[in-house]
Amino acid sequence: MPPPPHSRAHPQRARRDGGGRYSLWRLLREGVNGQRGWSHAWAKATPRPAYRVIVVGGGGHGLATAFYLAAEFGIRDVAVLEKGPIGLGNVGRNTTIIRSNYFHPANIRFYDFSLRLWESLERRLNFNAMVSQRGTLNLFHTEAQRDLFTRRANQMRLLGVDAEALSREAVKRVVPLVDLDNGRYPVLGGFLQPRGGTVRHDAVAWGYARAASQAGVDIVEHCEVTGLRRCGARVIGVESTRGFIAADTVCLAVAGHSSRLAAMAGVPLPIETHVLQAFVSEAIKPLLDVVLTYGAGHFYVSQSDKGGLVFGGAIDGYNSYAQRGTLPMAEEVAAAAVTLLPGLARLKVLRQWGGVMDMTMDGSPIISRLPVDGLILNGGWCYGGFKAIPAGGFTTAHLIAHGAPHPLAAHLDLGRFAAGRTVDERGAGPFPYLH
Ligand SMILES: Cc1cc2nc3c(=O)[nH]c(=O)nc-3n(C[C@H](O)[C@H](O)[C@H](O)COP(=O)(O)OP(=O)(O)OC[C@H]3O[C@@H](n4cnc5c(N)ncnc54)[C@H](O)[C@@H]3O)c2cc1C
To answer: Can you tell me whether residue 268 is helix, strand or coil?
Structure first.
């Protein structure tokens, strides 16, 4: 009997096929034919002894980096090594928000590049990632906050990025459920970025994995990197649970595990790991058609296409690698929710979970060469790395392919910490738990 089309015996064939092209015509054809023509979206590769580039971590950034390396920069001799199944890290645990409403001009440019890539991503990957530009609305509650948000919005508009100021009345029209005069922090108004919104998070991992695999990348699941092998000042490959694999370049894209992995090559990073939690409620009828953030506490909420309200809060505030929820955070987030939206008081929360965040000292990410030749870092995403996946992957691939940073990510180099060029959006200082 011939092996199935996507078994390990036929990696090349699986790559070329990649489940075929998805289209309305294909859906109709498969419907008529009893859905028998579908196959695995990406090939389950076994690692080869050597690659030009190894990307460690099959999250959003690792998969996007591999995809752009192959599809944009012509480097196809690439493997993504993921310790579990792909997509179970933060890429599948976040609250799915995308936006580019930042303060620093360099950050606005970087995140808006990402937003523009999101806008064409589904066509680029031939995959439905449910990109929904429903708008992100940030509320403000003090005059000082109004000033700060106004500066940010002006900065965005100067750079050609969308931002609109909303009065209290306009906020009420967009989200009738908001209690404008809540006793703790009355709402004075809001700023809307209409192009912000949400994307189905695990579809992002699947879409990039499928497209990368089709472009020739080996996606190796259940392959944990346990060491980085050096020869003098150069990295020459990785030790893994599936043996030693050689590489000219090793790119770390392991989010909350960044400092652990870099330490394997003897490189200390200005990154701490903290837990960030999210919650989802029972499904209810359509109630909220923007992403809403509370300016007087760390609380944000959107409604998923299944009807559940998805909300999140701040990080726990102490170092941890535990990917789980805690009761104090459930209480804090629920308190913020009912302060702002009292109508939610009797809503039932179905699930709560956590992910491990790579929090940097200035709250901005690091896309940089590390001080070991051949070793690259895509990390330090704090709790904003989902929106940055397309731009993070693209600019990391550019750095690997050209040996020089992409102009839009040049400010995110590791050297900024030693040189005092930190990119501190909140002006909170070198305290990861405050960013
Ligand atoms: C609750 C929550 C809400 C969030 N909300 C948002 C949001 O709304 N918007 C936003 O922009 N961002 C948000 N984020 C942040 C965002 O999800 C992350 O910054 C981003 O996903 C990190 O990049 P990644 O996808 O590559 O990480 P991950 O998906 O975590 O990928 C890293 C991968 O590396 C693998 N790995 C680790 N160690 C090894 C090893 N030794 N060998 C092999 N593989 C290894 C892990 O298994 C993992 O799959 C949120 C995060 C959480 C947890």
So the answer is: coil
Q: Which of 259, 386, 425 to mutate to test the pocket of ligand 1 (most atoms within 8 A of CB)?
A: 386
**Ligand 1 pocket by Cβ (under 6 Å):** 56-62, 81-84, 89-91, 93-97, 224-225, 253-255, 257, 261, 276-278, 312, 355, 381, 383-387
Neighbours of 226 (CB within 10 A): 12
Q: Are 298 and 334 in contact (CB under 8 A)?
A: no
Report the residue among 94, 202, 366, 377 best suited for mutation to probe ligand 1: largest number of ligand atoms under 8 A from its CB. 94
Residues 6+ apart with CB under 8 A from 88: none
C-alpha dist (Å) from residue 224 to 77, 98, 217, 239: 19, 29, 18, 9
d(CA 365, CA 271): 10
| Closest to 378 (Cα-Cα) out of 23, 3, 5, 57 | 57
Across 214-330, the runs of DSSP E, i.e. the strands, are 218-220, 225-231, 234-240, 243-252, 271-283, 291-294, 299-303, 308-319
Return per-residue pLDDT of the chain as tens, 435 residues.
333 333 333 444 444 455 789 999 999 999 999 999 998 999 999 999 999 999 999 999 999 999 999 999 999 999 999 999 999 999 999 999 999 999 999 999 999 999 999 999 999 999 999 999 999 999 999 999 999 999 999 999 999 999 999 999 999 999 999 999 987 899 999 999 999 999 999 999 999 999 999 999 999 999 999 999 999 999 999 999 999 999 999 999 999 999 999 999 999 999 999 999 999 999 999 999 999 999 998 899 999 999 999 999 999 989 999 999 999 999 999 999 999 999 999 999 999 999 999 999 999 999 999 999 999 999 999 999 999 999 999 999 999 999 999 999 999 999 999 999 999 998 888 999 888
Give the closest residue (by CA) to ligand 1 atom 2: 94
Atom of ligand 1 nearest to the CA of 86: 49
Supply the angle between the helices 389-402 and 201-214 in degrees, to the nearest 10.
Answer: 30
CA of 133 to the centre of ligand 1 (A): 22
